[in-house]
Amino acid sequence: MHIHDIQAFLTVTKTRNISRAADRLFISQTAVTHRLKNLEDELGVTLLARGRGMKEIEITPSGQDFLPIAKRWDALWDEVGHFKKQGEKLALSFGSVQTLNGYIFPPLI
């Protein structure tokens, strides 16, 4: 399962139209349809009812069940992106004798 497939599904559910979803994702309608088909094939269910001449896409009951999962998956993907941007965090550790621990460090901490 790829994040691009899930993002295509979420965008289509928001716009209710493959053409508008393709415009928002800056890809072709064929690419959106291909991503939806990949997702449906992998899940083994039909997520969206679509056909020629349909003005708006309808979400199937399976699609309704999958929608909150897709939203969480997308949110986690965003969190991973933020985590990667933070980079490596440095840690400082030091050792000391008991005298320093008892008399000098408590006011500092």
From TrEMBL:
The keyword Transcription applies. InterPro entries: LysR_HTH_N, WH-like_DNA-bd_sf, WH_DNA-bd_sf. Residues 1-60 form the HTH lysR-type domain. The keyword Transcription applies. It holds the Pfam family HTH_1. Belongs to the LysR transcriptional regulatory family. This is Regulatory helix-turn-helix protein, lysR family.
